[in-house]
Amino acid sequence: MPGIKGTAIAAAIAMLLGALVGAAGAWTWQAHRYDKDIATLQRDQAEKDRQQARADEAQLRQEREKRAGLERQLGELDARHYEELNNAKTENARLAAALAAGTRQLSIRARCTAPADGVPSTTSGAGLGDGGAATAILYGEDAADIQALVADADAIAAALRFFQGRERAIQTRDTSVDARR
Which residues contact 98 (CB under 8 A, 6 or more apart)? Predict the structure, then answer.
């Protein structure tokens, strides 16, 4: 009987070895399938990453172009208003020189109003109290002071136009950026 026992042990060992070989084969096959799945997932993720990088690059390029356009627009605006300011300064300097030389006079139109009762008061000095028009001619320092005020007003108006134009350009850019989002 030892032969049957030995045969049974040999059969059990053979079955155990067969099961181990089958398990190893299944393990290898499953590992290969998982490796393929992981490789596919990695390839898909890499493609998604490349597409996202291209989209980000395109958006960045577009933002750079918009910024360059805005900077160019602001530069043109600055140059135009700087030229306006210089022209106003030149004209004001020319007028100031003409006033100082006496070749130009500064006059102010005025209207003297009549008193409500139509009768001039007795304490008033000489003047037109009949509502008639009058013209006052200013010379020298007084005219120069008024001309300097006008020059300052021109400079402030030019600066205001510049800043308003710049703000409009920035608002337009911000509005277009917000609309894309």
Answer: 104
Predicted pLDDT of residue 155 = 81
**Does this model's pTM top 0.70?**
no
> Are the beta carbons of 151 and 97 closer than 8 angstroms?
no
Domain count, the chain: 1
Taking residues 34-53, what's their average pLDDT?
94
Q: Which secondary structure element, helix H or strand E, spans residue 68, and what is its range?
A: helix 2-101
Structural domain of 165: 63-114+131-181
Give bridge partners of residue 137 from the DSSP assignment. 107
- Give a yes or no: residue 9 inside a domain: no
Contact 93, 177 (CB under 8 A): no
Q: Residue 136 corresponds to which tokens in the numbers above? A: 């006052």
